[in-house]
Amino acid sequence: MFNKILLATDGSDHSSRAIEQTLKMVEPYKDQVTIDLIYAVDGESSKEDVLKYGDSHTATMKRKEKFLGSVQEIEEKGVKAEVIILHGNPAEVITEYANEHEYDCVVIGSRGRNKLQTLILGSVSHKLVKYIQSPVIVVK
Questions:
Q1: What is the pLDDT of residue 118?
Q2: Among 17, 19, 31, 102, which has the highest number of CB atoms less than 10 A from its own CB?
């Protein structure tokens, strides 16, 4: 049974599918589960957000607002949820955070890149599977 789940999200459709699958997975014992939604902001996105919103505090608040719908969806199912925002390379900061906080499971949505794209660009989900010490579930 997974009680403490880290769910990597970026607000995409792939992340939404990961949320849906996670909720199905924990349905029988939902009142015992906590899901932490983690969003990693890379340097370029961080700069763009600060320029767009005027300061880093407002940018952080806007990022959290982006995930309020997801938190509400999760909590409506009887599961506790929290949003965690980190800064840095997504694969690196999510891996570091997951390994430091003893999660029972980490869930991430897959973008579905083809083999060439994955070879050239790498894949956050592949890196999480490789380096996180907890079980990792990749949702397609």
A1: 45
A2: 19
* Complete DSSP assignment for 55-100: SHHHHHHHHHHHTHHHHHHHHHTT-EEEEEEEES-HHHHHHHHHHH
Do residues 136 and 129 lie in contact, with contact meaning Cβ atoms separated by under 8 Å?
A: yes
Question: How many other β-carbons are positioned within 10 Å of the β-carbon of residue 88?
Answer: 15
Is this prediction's pTM over 0.85?
Answer: yes
Angle 80-26-95 (CA atoms, 0-180°, nearest 5)?
A: 75
pLDDT at residue 122 in the model? 52
Query: For the chain, what is the domain count?
Result: 1
Distance CA 96, CA 71 (A): 23
Q: Which domain holds residue 129?
A: 4-139
Task: State phi, psi for 39 to the nearest 5 degrees.
Answer: -125, 125
CATH number of the structural domain spanning residue 8 = 3.40.50.620
User: How far is Cα 45 from Cα 28, in angstroms, rounded to an integer?
Assistant: 38
The tens digit of pLDDT for each residue in 8-36 reads 998 888 889 999 999 999 999 999 999 99
